[in-house]
């Protein structure tokens, strides 16, 4: 990844009566624009996210989605859907006077990248995607109900702990009740357990420092509440919508690179493979010694190679 740089522009963009987004711009002022779509939903951006792009070539645009990071109000679920976020990306593009841009997203960011590109294909130069996630019921069931649980039994026990045994037949709904409880202690306890499960499972080699992110009340609350809100509502789209042929046909012409960890249990490789089957024109690389995180060396290396290859387009 490229060395750390500081933004030359920070801003707040009001996108509704309720929501205001934080955004920042770094790199080359007249460079080729790229927008970074963070994961979660609810995860927010990190300064190190700028490092996927050559700052001498790219005008690097990062922003926190509704309710996430420095955007306000924090953890808000009101007027917070996939299609609200798609509209926000367009408002940000127009505000920054960008004609077309590269779109970069991993995990939930890949979901949002596909949804945005399918809605505005004429505004997307290329797609660089990682850890494909399309919010199908089967994907959610594998991670939150049964599947990944078989690989991380000790972490699964901690994820189960806040939920009474009779309610565990639908963990997402059970968590939904606790994450929206009137009792703050209940909400924060559930939020930390939800976030910790994802932090535990995100890397091929379990990283205690990564797991520790879940101990931050503000991060866990936004991350867990917004993720759960999207997931119990099935992403506010048809099951499998992003993989439907008529949707893929809208973006088939866009040069697209997909980087996928072989042992990604958060967003298993089967979804990236499903995307490749319906869209054979994409370049799919499966990293043999990686899990989900964009910071794993094999994944980070290929992501930077992809952005370098598109830098002059």
Automatic annotation (TrEMBL):
It comes from Galerina marginata (strain CBS 339.88). Belongs to the peptidase S33 family. This is Proline iminopeptidase. It comes from the Eukaryota. Residues 33-294 form the AB hydrolase-1 domain. It holds the Pfam family Abhydrolase_1. The active site is at 107 (nucleophile), 264, 292 (proton donor). The keyword Transmembrane does not apply. Its EC number is 3.4.11.5. InterPro entries: AB_hydrolase_1, AB_hydrolase_fold, Peptidase_S33, Pro_iminopeptidase. GO terms for molecular function: aminopeptidase activity.
